[in-house]
Amino acid sequence: MPDTSVTPQQLETQIKEQGDKVRAAKGRGAQKDEIQGLVNDLLKLKADYKNLTGNDPPGAPQQSSKQKKKDKKAAPPKVEAGVTRLGLEAKKFEDLPNWYSQVITKSEMIEYYDVSGCYILRPWSFFIWEVIQKWFDTGIKAMGVQNCYFPMFVSNAALEKEKTHIADFAPEVAWVTKSGDSELAEPIAIRPTSETVMYPSYSTWVQSHRDLPIKLNQWCNVVRWEFKHPQPFLRTREFLWQEGHTAFATQEEAHQEVYDILDLYHGVYKELLAIPTVKGRKTEKEKFAGGDFTTTVEGYVSATGRGIQGATSHHLGQNFSKMFNIQFEDPNSTTGEKLFAHQNSWGLSTRSIGCVVMVHGDDKGLVLPPRVAMYQAVIVPCGVSDSNKEQLNTHCSEMEKTLRKAGIRTHADLRVNYNTGWKFNHWELKGVPIRIEIGPRDLKNNQVVVVRRDTGVKTTLQNENLDEQLAKLLDTIHDDMYNRALVERDANMAVTTNWEEFCQLLDEKKIIQAPYCGAIPCEELIKKDSARTEVVDDKAPAMGAKSLCIPFEQPGDATSQTCIAPKCCKAAKAYTLFGRSY
After folding, report:
1. What is the dihedral of CA 46, 50, 56, 59, to 10 degrees?
2. Cα separation, 160 vs 374, whole angstroms
3. What are phi and psi of 271, to 5 degrees?
4. Is the pLDDT of residue 167 over 90?
5. Which end of the chain is more exposed for a tag (fewer CB within 10 A), N or C?
6. pLDDT of residue 566
7. Per-residue pLDDT tens digits for 237-257
8. Predicted TM-score of the model (pTM)
């Protein structure tokens, strides 16, 4: 009998957390007995849920009798004796969810945690975030932005002050209600974003136009208690980000900063992550709640045919300064008239790391852009024997020091408990851009063999000026990775003015630029009518198209076209980029 003191909601949470443990165990290649034990516990929780409610747990797949018979017949894959489970056991374009889970765990980017939707960022992934931080921090400081830190807790009164803005976050707000065994007099929210935390202070600090501009940024964590299926980096309950909050005396200054920040975000993706993005403006439906307008950089994941929001820069207008009384005396007024400040906010998160995995990864594992890789080159001694081991290892260690001194992040893998082939696979899985192979013949000929992770191409290079040759190669790898992603993105970005073609292109995993009138009901209709009513393939996406952005670079004049929405006869205002999205 199930424990009737447990509620269905508690069981749902336990099922989700147990499912995370099963996926984590599979991802790290745990022993069969361990995985089976975790699966048995999961099945028991699901059975308890069904006994208690009479229904299957939310998200449980509904199989036809034909599919059940087919699954019964299908034999599980056998692992041959002596074969390790180091490599990936799923293919990117065949089973993306399982591939993604395996890549981020086996490459040692992520470790699953016992709180569902929260994850441990291991050094291999956190280094990427550190590089992004350093690059972006340098950019914003050159614009006069200063870093600060505000508390993570928000009073209920502060949240109530901006109901319109917080409405979008309300279902995701996590609340602290107890201290030890005592109930708090008033629940305290954990920040989902920091407008309500920061702007009361801005009101105190701003009295005169001389107190402006305020340009502050904080690197912090936020919590959004997502109830949808969490995915590491892409959709998590806690994540790291930067959030900039600025206030200006004039609208012109504020507008300029919005676009300057957007250019920096575009630079993060292009110059560091080798990912092309579309710069544009969000529609009224998709803009930041409470803001005047939102700008964005949008990426594309070819394996799913979905767009992915990379970062956003918002102009808040005077909406928040009026809510929080951020005002100053008009310097041109003789009567002491007050003016409200013009504000912006902008943010980039660790979702960017997930973009790197999804865009560049392949069936061997990660493919890291050189500028964010912890190790840009790994040295592996080959053909090691008792007679040459000391000489080879000494040479590899000296080369490691030389390359590091030249600014190339290098690691010599001199471990004796793993063979050469295992090391090759290990560093391929982790996505290191360059592998340097050094054997007895290479020592004799004063050369190395260099293997590119992104293409697998092997080249023999002389040791003379090796640091300069590798530095150039790393830049070439970055440019090639960016250009491949750009070609792939452009091949899957279409333009149409026809509704039937729009739906066909969507099912072909394209993102589509189409004329749109800007009306919210039309956007809702586009999403509804482009969704699949029948699922032909379980792995094919069924959701409808949502607007990603109104691209700044338009494919043509949309004003001569009719809105793409079915039954809408209004003239379009601009070509808008639509697609399925994360």
Report:
1. -40
2. 44
3. -80, -25
4. no
5. N
6. 93
7. 999 999 999 999 999 999 999
8. 0.85
